[in-house]
Structure formats: structure tokens, C-alpha cells
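To the team - zinc ion complex, inputs and output below.
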Amino acid sequence: MKFSIKNGKPEMQKSACVVVGVFESRQLTEAARAIDKITGDYISSIVNHGDMEGKEGSTLLLHRVPNTLCERVLLVGLGKRDEFCDKKYRDAIRATFEALHKTAASDAVLFLTENPVENRDVAWKISQAVIVSMESIYRSDQLKSTQDKTKRCLQKIVLGQENQLNLVTAEKALQQGLAIAHGINLTKDLGNLPPNICTPTYLAKQALSLAKTHKLKTKILEEKDMGKLGMGSLLSVARGSRQPAKLIILEYWGRSKKEKPIVLVGKGVTFDTGGISLKPATEMDEMKYDMCGAASVLGTLTAIAHMKLPINVIGIIPATENMPDGNATKPGDIVTSMSGQTIEILNTDAEGRLILCDALTYAERYEPEIVIDIATLTGACVIALGHIASGLLSNDENLVKELLYASELSADRAWPLPLWNDYQEQLKSNFADMANIGGRAAGTITAACFLSRFTKKYRWAHLDIAGTAWKSGKEKGATGRPVPLLTQFLIERAAKKRS
Ligand code: BES
Ligand code: MN
Ligand code: ZN
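Output:
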């Protein structure tokens, strides 16, 4: 789909479809009123007959409306005017595209960005319109022998602006929305790939090809390199796998190299069987999504490279499978991490923290401003926060505030959990510096406590995306989260630097 922005009047559009909003209790928006006027109350008479009451999520398609130059007019219900908010705006855009995709219209002009949304400007509305509409056309059917036959007619989307608008700001918002949408799509594609295709080697190749198309530098460390660095913890997870582990490093320098970078570390377990502490068979296929943290790092880097964001960002991805095998790590094994700390592995299914800890130690060499790790780390996080919010744990209060702000703006929720020292006791081992599990209680927190022992040298936040990275059931598929949150966080950071 192609997007553009245009100043113009709703009633003067030569388009296959003009989209305007109607608030609840039959209140026309400004754009709807403009069309109503030249059509001799055509719209208001339909609305007054009760066919379009303005209820949230409702749509009504009208053909050949008198006196208009367009083939169709789509009325979209926006709900109560004084309750119109960011969520309802996004829902309205979603409903719009659901309706548009059912028509044969090849282009459409939307007049939906003019209705005020509390605390959100036009730039936000434009980029969200792009993101939500791109989401509406996402499919993952490349591996079906016949692709979805229902052809999509819609090719061109114009975001119409009735009031004179700063076109530079609007264009920038459009480009940002597109960049984020591309990042989300890449993250979804990688997540949805089957684990026999999306191996650590495949992820490394993806990183190399991203580096070619964007302004990125890539380095791939092999198992022998990791051995030399003393990454005994990461390598202990890879022992049971026939697929070689990779440590993937991507560097994006949008500013002078003298400025400290932000490091993103993404868990890249391309399949998690649990290892010797084998998982039950039910839904084990979904453990192909255990690399969604890694995919979100690649997606975020693509997005910021696309928009040429003036900021320095490093991506570090420890990638491996977690498999049972004669050579696999056993419960009770003790390994030495790159940091020198020893770990008693009591459960081989708590492998995410074992690969992240060495990647987090490796991050120290960048003298980072901030480190954020993203991981499908604990089933306990799904119990705590469900599929709505990602878990957020950090050693820095201000960083939590910044991430919460970005999550609000991007409609990609995260919510804090405490990281008090009281929880550290649960990781005590009689034989090593720590155990890799802390019992059933507060599983998400003790996992973060484990990581916190490797992040003492910098400001750090951990996002547990176990409940948000993908959907199960009929709608099974990767969500692309938390690319919107991370990208927004970096946009805000870059803006602060400039001012
Ligand atoms: N990848 C899983 C976490 C997970 C499980 C995410 C289910 C989403 C849905 C992780 O490696 C894992 O197995 N964690 C264990 C930790 C436990 C052994 C302490 C868990 O959550 O059960
Ligand atoms: Mn596991
Ligand atoms: Zn895992």
C-alpha cells in the first residue's frame, strides 16, 4: 500500500472512497458535514434514519452519493465525542480498513485525523493510521502452497487534511509510521517462521542482509569465539543442539561514535524444548516464538535505520536452540559465565537468562548509556500481566518512567514489577554463586533478579514479553511487540539529544 498526505476538502475528492467519521447520537464530524452540505442533507438523512448511529466500530458504505466526485463514501462510527481517545482512534482506523478491504476500491481518502484526541497531535494520528492499516494487510502465508486468493484491491491511501497543515511535520510522521510498520512486519515474519527454517544461522544471515540494505554494521561470533570470551553460560544452552549458536551484533551509528550507545539485547532461542527439563507436548510448537526478543531487536534497528534516527544503537542477539541430547546440559551442572560468576543449572528450561547473562556482560564493552533486554523469559509473566502488558523491571527509576511514557504513546503497554533485593535470596545455591531458578513464587521477578547480577555497571531495563510477543489459538501469530515501544523510546531519546 502507498500512503500520502493531501490538503483538500472532503466533498471535492475524486476517489474510489472517501472516509469520514460520525460520532454517537448521530453527530456528524466536520468532514461528514461538508459532504452532507453539498449532497443536500443526504448523509444526515441516512444517519437520522438510524442506519449509522455513530457507535464505535460500526461502518456504513454508501455508493454514488449525489453531487460527489467519489464512487463511495464510508461512514465510520467513532463512539461518544467526549470519550474519543487514542484507543478509540486506533479502533476506528482498524474498522475503516476492515470495511475498505471488503470493497473493490483501489484507493481511499481518509478524513479521520482532524477529530481531537486527548494528548495526541496530528503527527501521532498520522503515524498510527499508517501502522494500524499496515497491520490490517499483514499475512504469513508464504509457506502455503496456494496463497490467500482474496485479492486486495486497496493500493493507495491518502490521509486527507481539511485544515492547512504543516506538510513537513505530516510527511515526517508518515515516514516514521512506515518505518515502524516495516520493523513490526520484519519482527512478525521472523517470529512466524518455523523453527526448522529460523535457526540461529538463519537469524545471523538476516542480520547480515539487513546490514547491506541499511546503514548497519554486523559482526557474528561463532561458538569458538564465545569460548574464548568465556561465555560458559551461553554455550551450556547450545550444547544439546546440532545447530551452532551465534552471537549476532549489529551496530547503528546515527551520531558521532563518541556518544555512548543504547544497547538492545534480544533473547534468540529459535526453539525451546526445555532441554533435559523437557517441556510438555501441548503447545510446544509455540516455543518457536522464543526468539521474538531477538526479532524485535532486528525490527527496531530496521525501523530506526529507515528513519535515519540521530542516535547510536547496538543490537546484541544471543541465538541458540535449547534441545535435549546426550551432550546436553543436565540439571545440577555448574557453569562459569563470562562475568566469572558461577551458576548451578537446576532447570535447563530456564535457559533464557543463561544466554542473556553472557550477552549482558558482553554489552559492557560498549560503555552503554542504557541497556534494555527483551525476552520471552517466563511463563509467570503471562500469569501476572496476561497478554496485555509486557513486564518491565529495571535498576533505574527514571528509565522506567521513560519506557512507560513511550509505551503509552505507542499503545504498546508495559507495566513495572518490583526488583527489590528481598527476592534475591530465592536464587541461593549451596554449590555455586547462584542457581538459575528461584522457585515458583514471583518467577518473573526472580528471573530479572538473576539478570540484575550481570547489569551492575550500567542503567538497565528488562522487558519480559512472554505474554505479548505472540497470540495463540485461532489468531496464532507474532504481534511485532515491543517494536512500537522500543522505537518510540528511541525517537524520544533522539529528540531530547537534539534539544
Ligand atoms: N521460553 C520460556 C518462557 C515461556 C513459557 C514464554 C511459556 C511463554 C510461554 C522460558 O525459557 C522458560 O521455559 N521459562 C520457565 C522458567 C522456569 C523453569 C523457572 C517457565 O517460565 O516455566
Ligand atoms: Mn525455557
Ligand atoms: Zn525459553
